[in-house]
């Protein structure tokens, strides 16, 4: 299982296809596809043996799930979505495992109206989990959450403290959802590692200097987390030609 913010699936298609051929995951959640549904590259993924479920919009947002067998129980929006036209949410079921793929609002700045929208998005998502899922049943929540949870998840926690994506309110909003019954799989196997999944294009040589953020996550309920073999951040795609500003997060399970 893996997650990846593509920052334009058309621009990143060669990287994604190459990665799928090499890694062969059973499932890949993608965010920020930035393409309308009719232009989503379904045939290219089908040629590799993947089914594609997607919701897009022109130039912004967009979510997708690629899987080696068809998803079931698919939905494209939370019931009480504040902006239902935004393509930020995708839900389904894969071999009895419930899946939620989200692309959280970035928030722009702490004093911007979008920051408060971001906090409300987290609140609605918590209600959605409470109403539709059971922490005693298998659930995966994956995506770009636009929040670095702890100090080891940003390159300069003192300077960035209080900035958007590392503000106490949004970090607490994420923790409240985790307290419902979700395990951060990367931290489960790497409790103290300073590791990032996003390096800002605007910072010169950000990845070479390791000036990054961990914004991309795979969470699981305990019944699924207990079967985790490994969880890693694959930095190699970020070094390739025309990369996304994010990279892949990968979890491997022993599900029998």
Topology:
Layout: E1 2-5, H1 9-23, E2 27-31, H2 42-46, E3 51-55, E4 63-67, E5 72-75, E6 89-94, E7 97-103, H3 113-132, E8 139-144, H4 157-160, H5 168-181, E9 183-184, H6 185-189, E10 198-199, E11 212-213, E12 216-220, H7 222-225, E13 228-234, E14 248-253
Parallel strand pairs: 1-2, 7-8
Antiparallel strand pairs: 1-14, 2-4, 3-4, 5-6, 6-7, 8-12, 9-12, 10-11, 13-14
Helix pairs in contact: 3-5
Outline the structure in words.
The chain is α+β, with helices and mostly antiparallel strands. The chain has one domain: Endonuclease/exonuclease/phosphatase (Deoxyribonuclease I, Chain A, 4-Layer Sandwich). The protein contains 7 helices and 14 strands. The protein has a 6-stranded mixed β-sheet. Strands 5-6-7-8-12-9 form a 6-stranded mixed β-sheet. A two-stranded antiparallel sheet has the order 10-11. It is globular and about 45 Å long.
Question: Can I get a quick summary?
Answer:
The chain has helices at residues 9-23, 42-46, 113-132, 157-160, 168-181, 185-189, 222-225, and strands at 2-5, 27-31, 51-55, 63-67, 72-75, 89-94, 97-103, 139-144, 183-184, 198-199, 212-213, 216-220, 228-234, 248-253. By secondary structure, it is of the alpha+beta class. The longest helix has 20 residues, at 113-132.
